[in-house]
Prior knowledge:
By secondary structure, the protein is mainly α. The chain has one domain (4-118). It is 69% helix and 0% strand. The chain is built from four helices and no strands. The protein has helices at residues 4-25, 37-52, 58-84, 96-118. The mean pLDDT is 92.
Amino acid sequence: MLSLHRVRQLSFMIGILLPLAETIRRSARLMDWWMWVDDYLIGGSLIFGAWLSRNQSPVGIRALIAAWGLACGMAYNGMVGHLLNLREPDVSGFSHSTVGIVIALGLALAVWCLISLINFRGSNSQPA
């Protein structure tokens, strides 16, 4: 399992890189904002959750769990969308299978972070 410190580091890193990468990927069609706004929501929630959990407060850790849960749900949806459209070109010029594999790796990371947080036992946590 990952430590809270490592999950927070990943949250800040993914929270910045995900919206940036999606903006670059969709740079030819930025007017279709509904196609990329979810990545900004994920990034913002990861950064906000990481910031709130800086003192290991139960509320902050719950916010970080919610942010990674959101990332899991959105990544699953995106991965399936790419798998269903394998024969069509992606807006980025990459194949849907390539983008789907990158999303699947991101989903695996998100699940790992989520499970690590659910199993986290910090100094302020109550026994289950």
